[in-house]
Amino acid sequence: WATVLLVFQIPLTTYLYILTRRNLTYNINYKIVLKYFSAFGISFSLNYVLIENFLVYHENIFQFIPQVLIFMISAVLLYFVLTFVLDKKTRNLFYAIINEIKGKKL
Q1: 96 C-beta neighbours (distance < 10 Å), count
Q2: How far apart are CA 96 and CA 50, in angstroms?
Q3: CB neighbours of 67 closer than 8 A, spacing ≥ 6?
Q4: Other Cβ atoms closer than 10 A to 69
Q5: What is the pLDDT, as a whole number, of residue 25?
Q6: Between the CA of residue 103 and those of 23, 78, 84, 91, 100, what are the distances in Å?
């Protein structure tokens, strides 16, 4: 049955690929992609170095998980800070979120 399904899946996938290439055009802004990729690389590389040097591997999961969560939260926060600094659209998104939260509290 797998062979029969594969025989039908390959032409269908090819047809849908050709159809989407005809109807959809996309433009990748490589500068923005490079900014986000560099922020990702810096934040998670730094996190990897910190984990390798400072994380203590306990056998007890209740001692280990809080340490891992601290490292993961710090990596995500560093990524958001770097994207905030590097990209104007992300900065505008953060400001819009903060303004929305302030508006809800009033």
Answers
A1: 10
A2: 32
A3: 55, 56, 58
A4: 10
A5: 82
A6: 41, 27, 22, 18, 5
pLDDT, tens digit, 9 for 90 and up, residues 29-83: 899 999 999 999 999 999 999 999 999 888 999 999 999 999 999 999 999 999 9
Residue pLDDT, tens place only, 8-22:
999 999 999 999 988
Q: At 95, list the tokens.
A: 């400001």
Q: CA-CA distance, 100 to 98, in Å (whole number)?
A: 5
Burial class (CB in 10 A: 0-12, 13-18, 19+), 83: buried
Q: Please, which pLDDT band fits residue 105 given cuts at 50, 70 and 90? A: low
Lookup: tokens for 96: 């819009």
Beta-carbon-side half-sphere exposure of residue 89 (alpha carbons within 13 Å) = 5
Beta-carbon-side half-sphere exposure of residue 12 (alpha carbons within 13 Å):
6
